[in-house]
Amino acid sequence: xVEAAAxxxxxxxxxxxxxxxxxxxxxAGKGAGAGMLRDIPKMLEITRRVVDAVDIPVTVKTRxxxxxxxxxxxxxxxxxxxxxxxxxTVHGRTRSQMYTGQADWSLIGELKNDPRxxxxxxxxxxxxxxxxxxxxxxxxxxxGIMIGRGAIGAPWIFREVRQYLEKGEYEPLSDAAxxxxxxxxIRESIDRIDEYRGILHIRRHLAATxxxxxxxxxxxTRIRLLRAETEKELFDLxxxxxxxxxxxxxxx
Length: 252
What we know:
By secondary structure, the protein is α/β, with parallel strands linked by helices. The chain has two domains: 2-126, Aldolase class I (TIM Barrel, Alpha-Beta Barrel), CATH 3.20.20; 175-245. It is 48% helix and 9% strand. The protein has eleven helices and five strands. The protein has a five-stranded parallel β-sheet. Strand 2, helix 4 (73-82) and strand 3 form a beta-alpha-beta unit. Helix 3 (40-53) packs parallel to helix 4, helix 8 (175-192) packs antiparallel against helix 9 (195-208) and helix 8 packs antiparallel against helix 11 (231-245). The protein is globular.
């Protein structure tokens, strides 16, 4: 981790974030990600040594604990802070929950209100709307929120949240504007990597977009989105969806 931190620092990022929250079996099962919640001494040692190894700010993201019998975040948060991190993000689920059930923000709020905590506490979990974002700030007093799955296929959520927090309301984008943003995602994903891998990455986001939620008989079209292999295939499918289900064609 120290060697990796040195490599990361050379790339010139603003911060280095350690992810102690990933719950997937191939990661957590090996003791990495959220698996570190079963070895707190090692988690703290890694954090401390990474902080000492770089000059940029180090932050941490983790979960409430390993399972419902071991929700340790209110004790763990101050200990991570003592390692020298500059901010802490907490996902309101345990590792055993994966992404099921509802995120529990009560312990996030308890941690934030702990007088020992001097660094920013960022809450994460189930923020899928501007109203939900505002409620997280208002009810739990967090310094920030992190949006994960709520942005999958819906990157416009950040615009809506910002507007709502600043003005108390937001202007929803038109369907046509949302299609334009999805097309931009496709192009940028391809430009950053290449067509093959860029498509592999982005097509799952397209298939999951809430823009298509509730469309009747959409299963076959969603499967085609998940199987598309070229930029042209995806753009043609978006044209088809826009024209067939929304009554307007989005020009390429």
